[in-house]
Structures are given as structure tokens and as C-alpha cells.
From TrEMBL:
Protein name per Swiss-Prot or TrEMBL: DUF2075 domain-containing protein
SUPFAM superfamilies documented for this protein: P-loop containing nucleoside triphosphate hydrolases
Organism per entry: Brachybacterium huguangmaarense
Annotated ranges, domain GIY-YIG: 28-103
Species lineage: Bacteria, Bacillati, Actinomycetota, Actinomycetes, Micrococcales
Superkingdom of origin: Bacteria
Cross-referenced InterPro entries: GIY-YIG_endonuc, P-loop_NTPase, SLFN_3-like_DNA/RNA_helicase
Gene3D superfamilies found in the cross-reference section: P-loop containing nucleotide triphosphate hydrolases
Length: 573
């Protein structure tokens, strides 16, 4: 028998007074409550529900809410209620049944006495609320959605929190001056750069839209930002999130539409930044390593626009000017989220450019490294292993990765079957590959097969946007351009003939004729840059290292080149 109870009442002064009279714990016990109207929801915790409801009744931002649900439990204490509040906010944010009205600065993930026992109760509370129609999905289903993975309602780890706080405190000082600043958040795949960027955007909007009837959580590391004198600085600022990749940009736009505080906040291409009617006060740039330099762009019209924008912003079509320069020209304060080891095309800004930006940020104490692995259960040990595995100095054997699965397959069909099994168990399990086969099926209505190995016939992703969640994804193969920035539970990585071991040298080599990303191997004629075989090898190994970092629970490998397959077999056993 469950120990908790959920009390239901109307969100009116009379109903609150009646509850205060008949429920002894209503005004003197730690509780968690929901305020909702069938569309919007607010989740809170308090030690005095009577006073808190009366405060909320005075809030213009909550006057449209109609119902209250209060979770009582004799075992609750302040820490447990804060934890349950965060737990429910995260799940409501990822489920999509309601639009969540909460700020994100109080989301916690702190340990406390008997937390594991409380977490079991929280899951029971979730199931009871789900039975009452408050959630449409189960917890595992919610956790597999983009709405959950890209939600601003995340508990930041210590280094993420310090980065956000330091950047925000810097803005409190800098916004009072004409200063122009650049901060850099740098981290490997899976360290949560995108989450930090989205969290920053929500925090900026929460400050700008502060509801004075809301309590400021004194335990939150961001509480001082909400004090009078600081929060006013953020009112009316022009802010935006820049995301170079189309698929990730559209996924984030979908999340922003479901978060009231972020609704209408622009998610921009670099071209839209450059063409905006007014300059920006703050721009956060996710996947900044995918910003481009002057080169032939994806479409001829974009190549033409590139020159037009550069001339308009700088007075001349200087071929050394890149999209990062555009952003600096249009924004007073810039936050870059980057990992130069994820650059995969010659048109991407050269790592040397970012090296200078990073060095300057370090000198100005605006560089924030993220080291804690948040995605892959194998942790940093797995990422380092994956990096050296595709090098000319591979490890002698795999490290102890605990329950993280790494397996080499000799049969592609068998690997696909394993991916299907894992998808049935956990969802979000997909085949991915390097761009080592032509995209023959790209034309709408085509029945052609793109990849044929071991009698296994596969096609590239039909959808270029949100492919991972598409209906046919399990039977297709995703490329770097559809999975970079996303999480999978299990990734089946096909290492194609574009990466091989040269028999004469025994070293890794790029096979240009088997690499079909035309813009991934093209020379940059505009800047007189030749994409050498060494450059191409760097791009291709970067592609595979990114693909091998997508799986949170496991990575499976199939290798076309027999010499490379044998090398990996010796390491993996």
C-alpha cells in the first residue's frame, strides 16, 4: 500500500481556505503540488501549502490555472520534496502533455539520506499521475524523446553549473558597459554542451520575465541573479540560439515551441543572424565547430549570399572572413559551444581559428572546459578508447567499461538484428555509417538500395530532419549529418571502405574514391586550400569517432576493410 496521497482541489481562495481547515498538513508539512488548467502546468514544493497557494493566486501569470493537486506523504522532508519537484518537472517537460511554466534554475540532483527509497516512491507518484491522465508516456518513453533530451529542465552537473553561473555573473557586469565579449564552453561529445546552451537560453528568458510572486530558492546557485538590481538587466534583450545543422536546429525549435518562456525565442542559422534587422545583445552558438569559412556552400544561392553578407558587414568581400566573424559583428556577447574534433568538412572553420579564440578566452578567464561524460555509460574511458582505436597507435586491449557494450560483428545482418533487439528493449537503437556509399535512393520515390553487404540491403535515411525518431529509421542507415548532436541508446556503426589500412605502410588511410560526401573532400578553391589525403583522413576519422560516441548504452561495429577489421578484432578480443 502506498504511503502517499494526492489531494485534489480547485485553484480558488475559498477552496484553499477549506483545505486549510480540513487538512492539518496543508499549512505545516512539506508537500509537492501541481497547478494546471489542462494545457499549462506549474510544479512546486513548499512547507506551507496554504500560504503558497495564496501567493500564486495573486500572480497574473498563473491566474488562468484552475486545478491543484497536492502530494502528501508522512515521510516527506524538504530534500525529498525538492527532488520530487525536479523529477516531475523534468518528466512533464519531456512528455509534452502540458506546457511547463516553471523556471529551470531550481532543478536539482542532490543526494540525501535514503534517496533510493524516495525515488521508488516518486516512480509510484508518477504512475498514479499517469493513471489520472497527467502523462501520456511511460518514463522510458519520455526519456527517449527529443523533448526530454533537449529540455531546459535539466539538473546541471558541477562543472556545467559553474560555467553557466560564471557566464551569467559576467553578463551582469558586462551588460552595464559597452564591452563586447566571447565565452567558450569546450567539451568532448557527450559532455552536455547543447544542454548547457539550452539551459542558458531558458535562464536568460526567466530573468527577463521574472514573476515577482515566485519565491527565489535560496539554495539555487543562480538565486542571486533573480535579486532586484540584477534581473532587470536582462529585460528586453535581443537573444538568440545559433545552430548550424538543419536537423538539430529544427528539433530544438520544436522544444522551444513547447516551453512557454522560450516560445518565440529565435533558433537561427548564421545567415539569419547576418540578415537580422537589428543586432543581438547575446547569441549562444551550439556546435560552433560547424560554422563555415568562405568556400562553396551547400547551395549556389548560399555561396552568393556569403559574399553579399560579408560585403555588407565589413565593406569588402574578404575571403578570410567567416561566419564566426559575422556573429561577432552582430552580437555584443557571444557564447560558443564547441569541440573542434567534430569538424567533418573542409568548409568548416579551420581548427586554428578556434585555437586563437580559445586562447583569448583562456586569457580573459572566459574558457569553460567540460570533462564529465554525461551521455556514454562507458564514460571518458570509452571515449578515449574509441579515439585511439581509430588511430595508428591503438590500445592493446579494451579497458574495463563495466556494463557498456562494445562488440565487433563479422556479419552486417547480425549486427542489424542486434540493433532491432535493442530497439525493442530500450528504443532509440539505430544503424549509422560513414559516407562511404552513394546516396542513390535520395530521389523521392526511388526504390534503389544504397548499401549492400553480406546480402544485407540497406538505404540511407529517408528523412533529413529528426531521422532518429522517424517511422522508418530502424530499417535505414543514418549519416553524420543526421545524428551529430543527438543521443542513441545503441549505435551500430558501419565503418565503410572510406577508412582502411594501407598494406604498404600498415597505417590508417582515407580512400578518396570510396568517400561520397562531395563537400567533405572538395578543395576550397576560393581560398586556395587543397584538401590533402591527410586532411581527408582527419575528417573521416572525426566522422567515425562522432558516430562511435552516439550510443549511451553500447556501440556495435562492422568494418568493411579486412585489415582494419582484424586490427580491431585483436583489440576487442
Amino acid at each position: 500500500m502506498t504511503a502517499f496521497e494526492i489531494e485534489e482541489l480547485s485553484f480558488t481562495a475559498r477552496s484553499v481556505s477549506d483545505a486549510d481547515a480540513r487538512l492539518p498538513r496543508f499549512s505545516n508539512w512539506p508537500v509537492v503540488y501541481l497547478l494546471e488548467d489542462g494545457h499549462d502546468i506549474y510544479v512546486g514544493e513548499t512547507g506551507n501549502a496554504t500560504n503558497r497557494m495564496r501567493q500564486h493566486l495573486k500572480s497574473p501569470a498563473k491566474e488562468h490555472l484552475r486545478e491543484v493537486r497536492v502530494v502528501f506523504d508522512d515521510r516527506f522532508n524538504g530534500s525529498a520534496c525538492l527532488d520530487l519537484e525536479s523529477f516531475l518537472i523534468r518528466l512533464f517537460g519531456g512528455d509534452g502533455r502540458f506546457d511547463v511554466l516553471n523556471r529551470n534554475d531550481g532543478i536539482t540532483n542532490r543526494d540525501y539520506y535514503q534517496r533510493e527509497e524516495y525515488l521508488e516512491t516518486f516512480r509510484e507518484v508518477f504512475e498514479e499521475l499517469r493513471a489520472r491522465g497527467y502523462f501520456e508516456r511511460s518514463i522510458p518513453q519520455i526519456e527517449n524523446t527529443d523533448l526530454f533530451k533537449l529540455s531546459p529542465y535539466k539538473a546541471l552537473n558541477t562543472e556545467q553549473g559553474i560555467a553557466v553561473l560564471d557566464i551569467m555573473e559576467g553578463l551582469v557586469d558586462d551588460l552595464r558597459t559597452p564591452a563586447r565579449t566571447t565565452a567558450v564552453i569546450q567539451g568532448d561529445p557527450g559532455t552536455g554542451k547543447t544542454i548547457v546552451g539550452i539551459y542558458l537560453m531558458k535562464l536568460l528568458r526567466d530573468l527577463a520575465q521574472f514573476d515577482p510572486t515566485d519565491e527565489i530558492d535560496g539554495d539555487s546557485m543562480f538565486s542571486d541573479l533573480f535579486l532586484e538590481g540584477s534581473r532587470e538587466l536582462f529585460e528586453g534583450l535581443r537573444i538568440g540560439l545559433v545552430v548550424p545543422q538543419k536537423s538539430l536546429r529544427q528539433s530544438i525549435e520544436g522544444v522551444f515551441r513547447r516551453v512557454p518562456a522560450l516560445r518565440g525565442t529565435p533558433v537561427l542559422t548564421p545567415y539569419e543572424v547576418a540578415d537580422a534587422e537589428e543586432d543581438f545583445d547575446i547569441l549562444v552558438v551550439d556546435e560552433a565547430h560547424r560554422l563555415t569559412q568562405r568556400a562553396a556552400q551547400a547551395h549556389g544561392t548560399l555561396t552568393k549570399r556569403y559574399g553579399e553578407i560579408t560585403r555588407r558587414l565589413f565593406g569588402e568581400d574578404d575571403y578570410t572572413i567567416n561566419q564566426l566573424d559575422w556573429i561577432h559583428a552582430r552580437s555584443r556577447h557571444t557564447v560558443l559551444l564547441l569541440d573542434t574534433a567534430q569538424s567533418v568538412r573542409p568548409a568548416d572553420i579551420e581548427p586554428a581559428v578556434f585555437d586563437r579564440v580559445i586562447a583569448q578566452a583562456r586569457d580573459e578567464h572566459r574558457l569553460y572546459p567540460l570533462d564529465t561524460q554525461m551521455r556514454v555509460r562507458g564514460g571518458s574511458a570509452y571515449l578515449e578508447f574509441a579515439r585511439t582505436l581509430l588511430s595508428d597507435e591503438p590500445p592493446e586491449h579494451a579497458p574495463d567499461l563495466e556494463d557498456y557494450e562494445v562488440e565487433l560483428f563479422d556479419d552486417l545482418g547480425a549486427m542489424h538484428d542486434r540493433i532491432r533487439e535493442r530497439d525493442a528493449e530500450t528504443g532509440l537503437s539505430r544503424l549509422v555509417a560513414g559516407y562511404a556509399w552513394k546516396w542513390k535512393s535520395k530521389k523521392k520515390g526511388s526504390t534503389e538500395v544504397d548499401i549492400e553487404i553480406d546480402g544485407c540491403r540497406l538505404r540511407w535515411n529517408v528523412s533529413e530532419v529528426d531521422w532518429i525518431a522517424s517511422r522508418t529509421a530502424l530499417e535505414e542507415v543514418g549519416s553524420i549529418h543526421t545524428v551529430q548532436g543527438y543521443d542513441l541508446n545503441y549505435a551500430g556503426v558501419i565503418i565503410g571502405p572510406d577508412l582502411r589500412i594501407a598494406p604498404a605502410t600498415g597505417k590508417l588511410a582515407a580512400d578518396r574514391k570510396h568517400y561520397f560526401d562531395s563537400r567533405g573532400k572538395a578543395n576550397n578553391r576560393m581560398r586556395g586550400q587543397v584538401t590533402t589525403d591527410e586532411d581527408l583522413l582527419r575528417y573521416i576519422t572525426n566522422v567515425y569517432r562522432v558516430l562511435m560516441s552516439r550510443g549511451m548504452r553500447g556501440t556495435y561495429l562492422y568494418v568493411v576493410d579486412p585489415l582494419l577489421r582484424e586490427r580491431l578484432r585483436r583489440v576487442l578480443g
